[in-house]
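step: validate -> pass
step: tokenize input -> pass
step: predict -> running
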Amino acid sequence: MEKQCFDHNWRFCLDDSYRLRWPDAADPAWRTVNLPHDWSIEGERRPDNPSGPDGGFFPMGRGLYSKTFAAPPEWRGQKVMVEFEGVYMNAEVSLNEHFLGRHPYGYTSFVLDLSPYLKPGAENTLRVRVDNSTLMNSRWYSGSGIYRHVWLLTAGPVHVAHWGVYVTTPVVSAEAATVRVRTTLENDTASAQPVTLRSRVLAPDGSIAAVTETAETLAAHGRREFARELTVAAPQLWSPDTPNLYRLETEVLVAGQVVDTEVTPFGIRSLHVDAELGFLLNGRPLALRGGCVHHDNGVLGAASFDRAEERKVELHKASGYNAIRCAHNPPAPAFLEACDRLGMLVIDEAFDCWREGKNPGDYHVAFDDWWQRDIESMVRRDRNHPSIIMWSIGNEVNERDGRSGGAQVARMLADHVRSLDPTRPITSAICGLWGPGEWAQTDPVFAALDVGGYNYQEKQYRPDHERHPERVMVGLESVPMEAFEHWMDVQDLPYVIGDFVWTSLDYLGEAGIGRLRPVGEKEHLPGYPWHQANCGDMDLCGFKRPQSYYRDVLWQRGDPLYIAVHTPLPAEPKLEPSYWGWPEVWPNWTWPGREGETFKVDVYSACEQVELFLNGRSLGAQPTTRRERFMATFDVPYEPGALRAVGYQGSKPCAECTLQTCSAPARIRLSPDRAAIKAAPGSLSYVTVEILDAEGRVHPTAEPQVFFTIQGPGAIAAVGNSNPRSEEPYRGHTRRAFRGRCLAVVQAGEQSGEIHLRAQADGIEPAEVVIRAE
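step: predict -> pass
step: emit ->
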């Protein structure tokens, strides 16, 4: 099946009036956009926006999309379809004013057949109405619009069905692997068709690893699945450390002529879970170092650019994660493709609610009519990805305690997933009861699962193991401040196979869930201008926060030492981190005017002990073993200079870390994550902007307004910082630095050439960087 990008040159306008007739093409409300497109991130955040703190105070509403395209004459008699990877939400699609279908859920992909109403040899108009006006419908920022890719699919009358190739590796050893291929073919003609089905496996280096070919007959207007097995000798296994990818090339021949082809990347690997051995990948135990991730791309909003999805995976790999839980919905295909290539394990999750909703307009209104189709979309689309190790059927659903037939619904969903893919375990995220009742009421829902997912329930691990010794457990949500307890359980208890922090990467919406709050205040989301969650190990720009460095220490990966200085807080009201928060600490030893004042300093350490020095004077040594939770705390009187921590194994120094008092901000440094990008509208370079002192150190308190100009075949797609209360827009050419840094995202156009990005701020030396579009 031929697949063409259908992202470019759409017409878009907001339509809060829900007009019965579409606006005239000359209406000035229309503008041209390329997909992916999120209109919410473009809009003005306001305290009176109905999205409120859950949606980050962004505007939502309704929108219209229209695309006119020429259909070549040779499409007559062809199968022509359109695939939407994701539209948020309540999409209604028509072609040439003929209604094609609707799709309520904003997170699953869907396909519509254009053939009945297509006019080959003429112009055609595809229209999409998007309705995100029923608020609230999400507990976080959703974005609005056609925020993922759109594809045009064409095939002859005899073809591979959409998502019709399914590859598994049921037998894997060092000597050989069995590759099982199930291929569904369709015949749209009025007569039976003799076909030849050829399947060819290509090794990671492109060489042919196995081939099979068989002759079959497809009935008139028929659809049939064919199962075949191939053997690959000495397979190169897929894992996070060795993400080897094979390719399955499928060819369909009629009368000796190739009439359809399909290429399916896959990995050869085995999975096993049990309560005694834990999680085994390719026969070896592996603890899941996991993080939960929402679907948005930070400063870009929900717009799902391939590079943004890839960078998300790169950030996690660099911070030591080997697993990501997609919370709480199926992710973009580009995200999964990056996980396959880069080596990241994935839990693919379906829903945040079942029949009982959490918001007036959320998925519960469509669940009974759509759950089966949405499960099929998730599993059929994603089941060839070797990165996916589990399916999750829900998150903290109200029915977890057995109400509303919860156990029956869980079994119904789990069984349907197993009918589509029996090769992966099924989980669901289950938290404590929100009302009266006993934890044991969750047992019937747990019984439908292969792996019990626990949200914030570390205290239940041991008693549940006593009651259910066969149950495999995984912490699907935990908070940073309980990272030590959760990870030690993973180390000590074989039946607990991993821990996933809420969250590894910050996100828009659930505004201020990780903030500082007055002591004793009830947990709630604060008001405007909070718009970020502020609970991620990495912030909205992808910069590591202190809790991420603590996790490095727990995992014995990355930097073994980190100095975290507590920020002085007002005496009244007395503040503390929320349940999802972290102490207000920062690697900052620049405190003018506070000389002599005592600062609390934490040192996170993977060493046996740590000694702290201030301007060469020892302030003492403390053990930093498991008994001390890998952390030492010192009281340090402030004086400018160098604060240095030295770690020891026994009596030998093994690591050190230094904070230096900065002089005045002097210049800007621009660091693009890619100096050369493809000359295409979706190609991005993330440019880190740092404010340096005269000695080249990032100034931790510098917050000047930075102004950007750009020349050449590119544009500034977004600007941002990590301030969760900033009122600045994410679209524009200026951004205030926050703690010495901000971010600019450069997007290429269709022309090649040099893109010059310049950044300047009052009173300091500007900077310029060149990014090549090739």
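step: describe -> The longest strand covers residues 158-172.
step: cleanup -> pass
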